[in-house]
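Supplementary Methods S3. Complex input for the nicotinamide-adenine-dinucleotide-bound model.
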Amino acid sequence: MIEESTAKKAQKQLYKAAKEIQLDPNLLKILEKPMRILKVSIPIKMDSGRVKVFTGYRCQYNNAKGPAKGGVRYHPDVTEDEVTALAAWMTWKCSLLDLPYGGAKGGIVCNPKNMSESELERLTRRYTSEIMPILGPHIDIPAPDVYTTSKTMAWIMDTFSMFKGYTEPSIVTGKPEILGGSKGRKEATGKGLSLIVRELFKAEKKSLKGAKIAIQGFGNVGGHAALFLSQLGAKIVAASDESGALVDPNGLDIPALLDCVEKHACVIKHPGQQIEREDVLFQDVDVLIPAALENQIHRKNADKINTRHIVEGANGPTTPEADDILRSRKIRVIPDILANAGGVVVSHLEWVQAISGLYWEEAQVNAELERKMVKAFKEVWKRSTERNVSFRCAAYIVAIERIAEVYRYRGVFP
Ligand code: NAD
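Predicted complex, serialized as structure tokens:
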């Protein structure tokens, strides 16, 4: 059987919510398709002196609510299909959090682990110059994603600024603080996710103290989520990354594991019991946090999931088929567009700071992050209860109703 494309899976999620609210079919025709996709060839002189040509993409899915906003991913599996799905999810996420943005995503097909820093810099700068015609602080604002960092954002910002002839800090978010990056941005997605878990337990009148959590993907999102959740009293009993997986029924020492990942870039150098990498998904836990890549929980393994809740740190980790299986098994899935929205919330604050030239203290950033995440959680909880639909469907309903309202005023050009 041929696997369905990721963009088709993303469309299915949209159709489900659209059917539930009987969305105007004309609007659905607009929302089911990306607004614009740019595919570019990126020739780079490698350190060996040979030229290699990479393929890159930038998809701007929708801009009805404001400039397109979304990360840039460097990974060998990047495709136009994946970038389109990720850009759609960004559109719904920004709307759900009521940010004045549409959605975008970009990526380059490459393996950054096999490239030197200077090759990555040339790759980033050339990619930026190739997508320059559709970039701008009021057009499309990139941010980090898988295997891109604040340094990548600094190169994009510098390249854009060199072309324009003036320094433009509001062209990217997730940049280093010295260039106008926001305090609290690096931790924001993991922190936001931990706030959602806290609210979930509060709403269910359960204590987080001692709750068992497993995390797939111990990068920016998974690592920070682990830190904040352990500070809230939860026990992180399993964690994995590309290198493998570790378990400890008494709870892993998260600060020590973070230090290990900082030093060795992998979890398995940390002492502890190792298990098969995929088995992190099947641990007996209260919360499973997939925080690596999409399509990790699918129809072939959804039956083996052994948790009460899945809180999606990654974008698109659960396929629609798996969603149905999990719902029938009464496992609650807190969708990506809510659970991992902390990053784009603080990205928005970073953009506001860069545009205004006024910079905020971390406490102010975190207070605004908390306000937005809690508000969105409550809206989704209410909608899910009122309509007796899944959390994902409820989150899509809130997001799509907002975009529908924008179209009601703006109309369809011309
Ligand atoms: P990252 O590059 O910092 O971390 C990715 C982690 O996943 C790494 O630890 C990597 O080793 C691990 N990984 C890769 N393949 C794996 C596998 N098969 N099994 C287990 N682990 C694996 O990336 P990130 O920024 O943390 O992003 C992770 C996910 O979160 C992505 O889906 C991304 O789109 C999403 N996301 C990120 C942000 C953000 O602010 N960084 C915001 C929202 C959503």
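Residues 362-387 form the longest helix (26 residues). The radius of gyration is 20 Å.
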